[in-house]
Amino acid sequence: MSMEEDAEVHTKTGKKSNVLPLWGNERTMNMNNLILTNIQASHYFKMNLYELKTYHEVVDEIYYKVSHLEPWEKGSRKTAGQTGMCGGVRGVGAGGIVSTAYCLLYKLFTLKLTRKQLNGLLTHPDSPFIRGLGFMYIRYTQPPADLWDWYDEFLEDEEELDVKAGGGQVMTIGNMLRHFLTKLEWFSTLFPRIPVPIQQKLERQLSDRFPAPPPGAAAHAAVQRAPERRRDFEEYPEERVPPPPPPRVRRSPSHGRDSPAHKRSRTSPPPNRSVRHKERRSRSRSRDRERERHGDRGRNRDRSSRNGHSRHHKSSKDDHSRHRSHSSRDYASELLKERERQRRERDGSR
């Protein structure tokens, strides 16, 4: 073979040619078997997506039907109580309703995308989910050694998308790609495994690209932002927010029960203890005086009530005796009058 023919073959089948290489299993797209079985058996894939024959029709379907990037629809997969190899991340056990995103991802695989079409997905301006499915297509089908070349220029992309079914997990394109390069797990499934040497190389490239901040950098940044925050508070006083409570300081062993400070606090009284003791004693004395006054008042009240009762009882006895003497006196006078009348009658009859 001549050099011209070799160059022509390299142009058609090489890395930069329009024909994309496929890595791994060319029949399953390196997907989990449970997910793939649910895709192929779903009514949406067999009926709706079967009618789509062109790349642009599939892109339009992604635009209208995809709202997240999970493999299962929300609430359709029951993984409660599954452990070990039956856990949710392994993708085995009970299935669910496979998502439209993964059905369309597999539909793209059946179209055998070209490099130009895949680049069109990555830079599509209409929907971040079109771009997201393009990046997932790369993660599932392209050789691990080529992942950095595909993702390099998008690692700092700030476009956001909500990847969770039902919403609640918004991330940027750049953060999602860094997750693809460093993690195998993606919700309830696994990406194809990256060989260890390539994985180590990717982690080194990421650490060089995004170095970790030095220790104390966050505190230094907060000090630098303090004048700006103070100026904002002065300009907009109505937006002031009370500062958060200070963090709880953990006691060191030197402040325990056996520490000198603790012993000193136990042996020596506090500075104003005598004053507080005097005040407490004076308050207790005043309470005792009040209690004695109340007791005297009660005793006087009881004595007066007893005297009044005795006087009332004596007066009632005198009244009763007067009533008895008056009644006996009246009876005697009447008896004398009656005897005098009887005597007169006898004398008159003689």
TrEMBL record:
Keywords: mRNA processing, mRNA splicing, Nucleus, Spliceosome. Pfam families: PRP38. Its main location: nucleus. Residues 274-284, 306-315 have a biased composition (Basic residues). Residues 207-350 are annotated as: Disordered. One of its GO terms (biological process) is mRNA splicing, via spliceosome. GO terms for cellular component: spliceosomal complex. It comes from the Eukaryota. Residues 226-241, 285-305, 316-350 have a biased composition (Basic and acidic residues). It is found in: Nucleus. InterPro entries: PRP38 (IPR005037). Required for pre-mRNA splicing. Belongs to the PRP38 family. This is Pre-mRNA-splicing factor 38.
